[in-house]
Amino acid sequence: MSEIIAERIFDLNQDGIARNIRISMEKPCRCETGQDWVCHIVIETPDEVVKRPAYGVDSYQALEIGLSKMQVLIENLALHYRGEITLYGSANIL
Hints:
With 94 residues, the chain is α+β, with helices and mostly antiparallel strands. 24% of the residues lie in helices and 45% in strands. The protein is elongated, with a radius of gyration of 14 Å.
């Protein structure tokens, strides 16, 4: 398992029930090709654990793309679960 370098726990509010969604970022590492880098985003929802890659030409770009991709993934989760995702009680999560 790769090293987790950052994580955040959001609340999913769905029909008056609050559940947690944990999103973590793994430490960037070189791809098997040896040229590009990848940073995996791990999403733990009440139903499943999903791992999504973010690629870059170097570790910094992989992190940067991973953070941008994370924003889209969170927005998609709200649509998927037909609920509101909050952070520390606020809908302004970004």
